Amino acid sequence: MNKFKRLSPFLGGCAAIAVLALLLVIYTLTKPVPMAGTKSISIEVVYENGVKDHYQITTEAQFLLEALNSVPNFQIDGTTTEELGLMVTTINGKRADYQKDGAYWALLCDGEPCSYGVSRQAIKDGELYTFQYTLSSEENKKS
Asked: Record's InterPro entries (predicted)?
């Protein structure tokens, strides 16, 4: 019985290392892979009232934020952290304030939620990126 008590921390450490290795492999296989070269992408902004702005751009950028920064008359702002990149709060002067009313800018790629934020979202030729003004499900229930 005493032998098992001494092995327990060792086995726990081995299990933790195995889990970390597995997570690293999963991240490596699923991380965004930027596409080199010129790409033509579409950007759509859907505001709270349903009005839409549409931008068609050709870019050499590999990530979405880099491409957006080159679009004339397109303004994007928010808070930046090292871990997550830019957390979008304002697009073209329209603010989505989660603290105030549960609103946020959802980022979609070809109609599906993006796996990454605007700073780390790799772009590919022909894709449509949509910023959708969205109310959280809690706020929708209150309405």
From this structure: Transcobalamin-like_C (IPR027954)
One domain, residues 15 and 77: no
Mention every residue, 6+ apart, whose C-beta is less than 8 A from residue 44: 52, 53, 54, 55, 128, 129, 130, 131
pTM: 0.72
| DSSP, res 35 | P
Tokens of 29: 């296989």
Q: Average pLDDT of each block of 10 consecutive residues along the chain (143 residues)?
A: 60 74 69 73 96 96 94 94 92 95 96 93 95 80 49
According to DSSP, the residues that pair with 133 across neighbouring strands are: 105
Range of the domain at 51: 39-142
Asked if residue 27 and residue 43 are part of one domain, the reply reads: no
Distance between first and last Cα of the chain: 61
Number of domains in the chain: 2
* Cα Rg, the chain, nearest whole Å: 21
